[in-house]
Amino acid sequence: MAAGEKARAKAEQAVGKAAQAAGHAVGNRKSVAKGRAAEAAGDAREAKETLKSTGRH
User: Is 1 helix (H, G, I), strand (E, B) or coil?
Assistant: First the structure.
């Protein structure tokens, strides 16, 4: 399951970066903020999975 969670984290990060870029392109600060939040959620998920996998070995 860890591989699935890591993939989900990468997907969240990618969606967040895309939302930020779109927000910057049109000047929408709310979209930029939502993108940052999605990217941060992906970062947190990735850190959690990395910590879990490190603890197993």
Answer: coil
Provide the whole-model pTM.
0.83
Distances (CA, A) of 31 to 4, 9, 17, 56: 27, 19, 11, 38
Residues in the chain, pLDDT under 50: none
Residue with tokens 């490190």: 54
Between CA 32 and CA 30 the distance in angstroms is 5
CB burial string 24-49: b at 16+ within 10 A, e below: eeeeeeebbebbeebbebbeebbeeb
